[in-house]
């Protein structure tokens, strides 16, 4: 099944700390920040933003910060300033990141596909063991 692709506006993201009980303060719906990683120095510095959504299986790697035309933005214009808080920059920008994910409604389809694969492999292994034992005793 082909993953869904979407653009997530960085201005809409929230990174809420995880409490002592293991619960996040992030909203239960919508996209949340998983992590923000700064790479490089100066004008070559860039951010990689990892996002998650409750119930969705994100299959893409953390994405680069992109402008409206889809080009990667680097340096302070791309919120990659070592002295600034990236979340403050995100709220005032029109930047986004691309995400590929499998929606929650595909969960059971994946479970049945996985079950079929394991049943086929176990049937093949049982046939091979039966064949091997019959051959050795003959």
- How much β-strand is present in the residues? 15-25%
Q: How many strands in all?
A: 6
Unreliable segments of 5+ consecutive residues: none
Oligomer: single chain
Q: What integer value in Å does the Rg equal?
A: 23 Å
Q: How many individual helices?
A: 2
Mean pLDDT across the residues is 87
Task: Strand order, main sheet: write it out.
Answer: 1-6-4
Bin the helical content: 25-40%
* Biggest sheet architecture: 3 strands, antiparallel
Order of helices and strands: EEEEEHEH
Quick structural summary:
With 138 residues, this protein is of the alpha+beta class. It is 27% helix and 23% strand.
How is this structure best described in words?
There is one protein chain. The chain is α+β, with helices and mostly antiparallel strands and 138 residues long. It contains two helices and six strands. It has helices at 86-91, 107-137, and strands at residues 4-9, 32-39, 46-52, 57-58, 63-64, 96-102. The strands form two sheets. Strands 1-6-4 form a three-stranded antiparallel beta sheet, with no helix packed on it. Strand 2 and strand 3 form a beta hairpin. The longest helix is centred in the last third of the chain and has 31 residues, at 107-137.
